[in-house]
Specification:
The protein is mainly β. The chain folds into 2 domains: 66 residues, SH3 type barrels, CATH 2.30.30; 73 residues, OB fold (Dihydrolipoamide Acetyltransferase, E2P) (Beta Barrel). The protein has 1 helix and 13 strands. The strands form 4 sheets. Strands 9-8-7-10-11 form a 5-stranded antiparallel beta sheet, covered by helices on one side. The longest helix has 12 residues. The protein is elongated, with a radius of gyration of 24 Å. 12% of the residues are buried.
């Protein structure tokens, strides 16, 4: 057999589960849980004692991490619950399109153009205002169960432009920059 017959294409999420099991009795406040097939942050946990005909039960109150809706679930404490894999990644904001999509710079230097602006009004205003003012912005993107959403913003200051003039001198241009030689 030749080497060509044994090459496999790597897929980022090939076979990767979007959740993992965790015993209900071990899930705590500020952790994550899947309620009604939605990734939620646990805001309240209460446990009922073992009854005459059953197990101790955990009552979970969670907030959907993408739409902010409150969800509740009751699970026997010895049973497993699905817990979402939640990641948070920072990207530099490059552009905002007229139809509400953002262009983001990844760590590898590629662009990510498939995310819409957030629906949270305060965060949306901060992003649009900062971008309009020409600030360098870093957005935090939260990802869970195949969904992604901008969930935070960091202002890393005004944009600086470094260029070399015809005499070979390097200059830094920005609101508070001074030329250097």
């Amino acid at each position: 057999m030749s080497d060509e017959e044994h090459q496999f294409e790597s897929k980022a999420d090939a076979g990767a589960s979007k959740t993992f099991p965790q015993q209900a009795g071990t899930i705590r406040k500020n952790g994550y849980i899947v309620i009604k097939n939605r990734p939620c942050k646990v805001v309240e946990v209460s446990t009922s004692k073992t009854g005459k005909h059953g197990h101790a039960k955990c009552n979970f109150v969670g907030i959907d991490i993408f739409n902010g809706k409150k969800l509740e679930d009751i699970v026997p404490s010895s049973h497993n619950c699905d817990v979402p894999h939640v990641t948070r990644t920072d990207y530099q904001l490059l552009d905002i399109t007229e139809d509400g999509f953002v262009s983001l710079l990844t760590d590898s230097g590629d662009t990510k153009d498939d995310l819409k602006l957030p629906t949270d009004e305060a965060l949306l205003k901060q992003i649009k205002d900062g971008f309009a003012e020409g600030k360098d912005l870093i957005v935090s993107v939260q990802c869970a169960m195949g969904e992604e959403q901008i969930c935070g913003l960091k202002d890393i200051g005004p944009k600086f432009h470094v260029f070399e003039n015809m005499l070979g001198k390097t200059s830094v241009m920005g609101p508070h920059a001074s030329s250097s030689s």
